[in-house]
Amino acid sequence: MAVNPTEAFELLFTREQIVERIKQIAEQVDQDFHGSRLVVVGVLKGAFLFAADLIRELTTETEIDFIWLSSYGTERFSAGEIRVQKDLELPIRGRDVLVVEDIVDTGLSLKFLKQHLMLREPARLAFAGLVDKKAARMTEVSIDYVGFEVAQGFLVGYGMDDAGLYRGLPEIYRLPPIADK
Ligand code: PRP
Description:
Layout: E1 10-13, H1 15-32, E2 37-44, H2 48-57, E3 61-71, E4 82-86, E5 96-104, H3 108-118, E6 124-132, E7 145-149, E8 155-156, E9 172-174
Parallel strand pairs: 2-3, 2-5, 5-6, 6-7
Antiparallel strand pairs: 1-9, 3-4, 8-9
Helix pairs in contact: 1-2
1-O-pyrophosphono-5-O-phosphono-alpha-D-ribofuranose binds next to strand 2, strand 3, strand 5 and helix 3.
């Protein structure tokens, strides 16, 4: 019989909760960017599902682009140097831009993105994070739209992975703690 790996995981947010929260975020974004033609930037790989679901809830006109960052560190903790593996294709000078992250952890990726994208002089740069893990912050960052706050733990599902696995789970789970590798 096939083993269900999620049996050992702690379910934090169901698909229904995620869908509902994204609808609420989309309403806020629609209010804040009314009349705009918004560039939504998904941060690969983790944010691909959140970005896809969010733009389908928005009534604001959107163009979608992606940026792919990589950082070096241990498998479950990356606080090293951040590099751009794939940059935006759309020009964002003078545009309204919403960066979409699956999770904000240390805050280093978001801080990097802010600096990286502000150099291009967008009209407005806002950030959405589906999960905010404030307790893990190493640098102060401000997130305009937060889905859920989580105190601790390593999360998987809905775009988030453990060594490449579990991104396709429709729910968000917390893994049981392990000794750091
Ligand atoms: C995750 C997530 C964010 C970043 C947040 O990406 O998608 O981009 O970590 O962490 P931070 O606040 O500590 O910088 P990850 O490096 O795991 O790559 P992935 O999106 O490809 O899974």
